[in-house]
């Protein structure tokens, strides 16, 4: 089945360009286009998209607040949000992820990378490119805040190891290789961790790991 993509950007030409790109992929289709954050929330409910490609600065309701509303709606539990913006700032990165976004990209991303990013977040992986991730770590350590989900103290030693590797950007296959596990076992551990921490996706696992101090800046991958 095709990945159902909703595009939210206040610039008509940008939406048109993204739509052409998405429709060029055999495994994707555009199911709606929104010019404001409020329209994005409404269309997310109506079109049942798998992923919303969300701009941040939009009229009426910005992309971060729109992301927060989508993430908080139980009827939209399966909808992922991929933030794609020109404004690659510390505040935007932190706020987008805390609002429930599963990924953050800037608009100078290459077309093929954008399509891969859509596939990544739909598959349940967090998409955090190296630059934003490094600043995200530093931001959490400078200004720690209370976690919005459960803490890692409820996890087993093995689960804490897995969470650490998730926070460092490893996928399930890489986690399995690092810990000498099968890919299925690694996937099962990640799923159990998400359940215990009440995390929506891997992006929230990353946030918990950094907020709790389980992973610290400078720790190698």
From TrEMBL:
Boundaries of every HTH luxR-type domain copy: 148-213
Keyword Nuclease attributed: no
Domain Response regulatory as annotated: residue spans: 4-122
Matching SMART domains: HTH_LUXR, REC
Matches recorded under Gene3D superfamilies: 3.40.50.2300
Lineage: superkingdom: Bacteria
Signal peptide feature range: none
PANTHER family given in the database record: TRANSCRIPTIONAL REGULATORY PROTEIN NARL-RELATED (PTHR43214:SF24), TWO-COMPONENT RESPONSE REGULATOR (PTHR43214)
Keywords, ordered alphabetically: DNA-binding, Phosphoprotein, Transcription, Transcription regulation
Protein's name in the database: Response regulator transcription factor
InterPro entries named among the record's database cross-references: CheY-like_superfamily (IPR011006), NreC/VraR/RcsB-like_REC (IPR058245), Sig_transdc_resp-reg_C-effctor (IPR016032), Sig_transdc_resp-reg_receiver (IPR001789), Tscrpt_reg_LuxR_C (IPR000792), WalR-like (IPR039420)
Modification sites for 4-aspartylphosphate: 55
Pfam name, any one: GerE
